[in-house]
């Protein structure tokens, strides 16, 4: 028998022996199937994290109380009485204007009050110095305490809020709440966002919050989140 033929026979034997080992091929399949699938998030309606999701603070979750006060004062970087409507020129949105947020952990557990707001409080969202856009009750945006909340999310950050694992929404920070107490950890939601978590008639509920990634340009819905550009 020639040497090349002998080597070929040995090679075939080794390959056959490897795949005949118990679990050899199936272990490779199992590793592949355990890789997490890349999910596509829907920022336009409530979503579920699954029945058995655990809100672990190491994943960026923090528990807080949410209350709803119909007609509550809220949102703006300055008192609304001092604000005037401006009709600035719209700027073309650029991908580079979007803050690309990964899911980040908050530094510690915090207690935060959440309300919903409507009417004139929706006017002139203060995260833009000059914008024609105004959110509506159907938008998915929020307003945060004006002063004293040192670790609060920034303008244009996206937040994921969950009332249990089955009811979660994404909202964008677009305004500040001048009427909220200095130093309070207070978040106002639009009616559409709040009603995805609970009835507007709810008094108090426990929810969870974390920073979230922002939608990509192809998914962007100005009616829900405002202009794509940060106005810089």
Automatic annotation (TrEMBL):
Signal peptide location: 1-20
Does the record's keyword annotation contain Signal? yes
Keyword annotations = Signal
Note down the stretches annotated as region Disordered.
70-90
Biased amino acid composition, Polar residues: 70-87
Q: InterPro entries this protein is in? A: Expansin_CellWall, RlpA-like_sf
Q: Note the superkingdom of the native organism.
A: Eukaryota
Q: Which PANTHER family match?
A: PTHR31836, RLPA-LIKE PROTEIN DOUBLE-PSI BETA-BARREL DOMAIN-CONTAINING PROTEIN
* Protein name per its UniProtKB record: RlpA-like protein double-psi beta-barrel domain-containing protein
Q: Which organism is it from?
A: Lentinula raphanica
């Amino acid at each position: 028998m020639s040497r090349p033929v002998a080597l070929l026979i040995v090679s075939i034997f080794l390959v056959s022996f490897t795949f005949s080992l118990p679990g050899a091929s199936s272990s490779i399949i199992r590793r592949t199937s355990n890789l997490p699938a890349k999910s596509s998030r829907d920022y336009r309606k409530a979503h579920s994290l699954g029945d058995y999701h655990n809100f672990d603070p190491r994943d960026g979750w923090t528990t807080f109380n949410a209350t709803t006060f119909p007609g509550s004062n809220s949102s703006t970087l300055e008192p609304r009485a001092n604000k005037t409507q401006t009709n600035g020129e719209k700027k073309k949105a650029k991908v580079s204007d979007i803050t690309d947020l990964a899911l980040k952990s908050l530094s510690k557990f915090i207690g935060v009050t959440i309300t919903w707001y409507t009417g004139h409080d929706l006017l002139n969202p203060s995260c833009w110095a000059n914008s024609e856009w105004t959110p509506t009750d159907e938008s998915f945006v929020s307003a945060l305490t004006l002063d004293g909340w040192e670790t609060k999310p920034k303008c244009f950050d996206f937040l994921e809020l969950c009332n249990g694992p089955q009811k979660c929404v994404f909202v964008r920070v677009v305004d500040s709440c001048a009427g909220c107490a200095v130093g309070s950890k207070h978040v106002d939601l639009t009616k559409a966002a709040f009603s995805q978590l609970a009835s507007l008639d709810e008094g108090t509920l426990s929810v969870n919050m974390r920073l979230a990634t922002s939608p990509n340009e192809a998914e962007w819905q100005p009616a829900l989140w405002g202009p794509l550009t940060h106005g810089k």
